[in-house]
Amino acid sequence: MLNIVILTISDKSWEGKREDKSSPVIRDALSCLEHRIAGYEVVPDETGMIADKLVEWAEADIDVIITTGGTGLATRDVTPEATLSIVDKVVPGIGEAMRAETFKITPTAILSRATAGVRDKCLIINLPGSPKAVRECLEIILPVIPHAVEIIRGDVTEHGDTHNEA
User: Fold this and answer.
1) Which residues contact 150 (CB under 8 A, 6 or more apart)?
2) What is the pTM of this model?
3) What pLDDT was estimated at residue 159?
């Protein structure tokens, strides 16, 4: 069972001026995983607030933090910077795979700066803010999330090897 939290990063949603349409897409997409949503919050595009929330959740009993929003090129898009400021390890393949595959659908996908990393025992994944992009990206990365969590937890030390095997 994965403990997952969702963090929406959006000035307008935080101010109540726009409905958060991406987190419901995340919830729906996660239905293929054995999980529970352990938290959800909306924060503005403020590096410190984003980083503080990521640290708070990563130091709780959370396996995966999925963020949505703030990964573009606009001045206020600071989610990758906040994430990179608090992770112990960067997982570049997640962002690379999302960009490579979604580029086949939309050429502007290469402008996404979404990243991923690990803090303590928690996998943090940045997704774009567009519901369409969220759906497309999750289709690409969802199959690897359980394995990534197993590795982070120490349940799998090498491909195919677990601590429980003889």
Assistant:
1) 156, 162
2) 0.93
3) 61
| Whether residue 163 has pLDDT greater than 50 | no
Helix (H) or strand (E) holding 148: helix 145-153
User: How would you class 26 by CB atoms within 10 Å of its CB: exposed for 0-12, middle for 13-18, buried for 19 or more?
Assistant: buried
SS3 116: strand
Q: pLDDT tens digits for 145-159?
A: 999 999 999 987 666
Q: Does residue 161 surpass a pLDDT of 60?
A: no
Give the containing element (helix H, strand E) for 48. Answer: helix 47-58
130/134 Cα distance (integer angstroms): 6
Distance CA 54, CA 57 (A): 5
Q: Which helix (H) or strand (E) holds 125?
A: strand 122-127
Q: In terms of Cα–Cα distance, which of 153, 156, 152 is closest to 164? A: 156
| Cβ-based burial of 143 (10 A; exposed 0-12, middle 13-18, buried ≥19) | exposed
Domains present along the chain, CATH in parentheses: 2-162 (3.40.980.10)
Give the amino acid at 42. V
Among candidates 115, 123, 119, 120, which has minimal Cα distance to 148?
123
